[in-house]
Amino acid sequence: MKLQFIEAGEIVTTHGLRGEVKVLPWGDSPEFLKEFKRVCIQGKTYEVEACRIQKTCNLLKLKGVDTQEAGMALKGQVISVFREDTDPETIFAAELMGMEVFAGEQCIGKIEDVLDYPGNLVYVVRGEHEYMIPGVKAFVLSTDLDANRMEVNLIEGMRSDED
């Protein structure tokens, strides 16, 4: 199911005296946050005046956060981006949680976890049995966020309780 907000990272500290906040991004790289002109923190929308990368983090200057004290007040908060500001073709792991998974016409369970391995994602599906399904085209035939449904192709060895 499409979410209104996608959690993108955590504010870990401030940077400088003018209210910049340092964000540890939760995505693949800090480049992701550079795309956004607005973010949401604790239900409040902030305009992003500037975003730059420092090593593995982002330094964000948020409109209205103009002092080190104001930035420090946001420390530890989760920063979210608006789903409508992202590429509509992108599917986020958070949107897959709880999605029903079908092999043919049979529902085999729901996605309970998404594991991020170097080669690809692996979806943990639990129902009557547990399945580990690689997130590649050979096995994931379709994903429909609106219908909350994924179609998969199962092969021997995906069921984790098989001998």
Task: Label this structure with key terms.
about 160 residues, mainly beta, 2 helices, about 50% strand
Termini separation comes to: 34 Å
Mean of residue pLDDT?
A: 94
* Sheet of most strands: 6 strands, antiparallel, barrel
The helix content is: under 10%
The sequence of SSEs as H and E is EEEEEHEHEEEEEE
Secondary-structure-based class equals mainly beta
Number of strands: 12
With strands numbered from the N-terminus, the spatial order across the biggest sheet is 1-2-5-4-3-6
Over all CA atoms, what is the radius of gyration? 19 Å
Total helices: the number is: 2
Tell me, briefly, the overall form.
Answer: elongated
Q: Strand content of the residues, in percent?
A: over 45%
- Low-confidence sequence ranges: none
Please characterize this protein's 3D structure.
Strands 1-2-5-4-3-6 form a 6-stranded antiparallel barrel. It is mostly beta strands and 163 residues long. It has helices at residues 68-72, 93-96, and strands at residues 5-15, 20-25, 38-41, 44-54, 57-62, 78-82, 100-103, 106-116, 121-126, 130-134, 140-144, 149-152.
Outline the fold blueprint.
Blueprint: E1 5-15, E2 20-25, E3 38-41, E4 44-54, E5 57-62, H1 68-72, E6 78-82, H2 93-96, E7 100-103, E8 106-116, E9 121-126, E10 130-134, E11 140-144, E12 149-152
Parallel strand pairs: 7-12
Antiparallel strand pairs: 1-2, 1-6, 2-5, 3-4, 3-6, 4-5, 7-8, 8-9, 9-10, 11-12
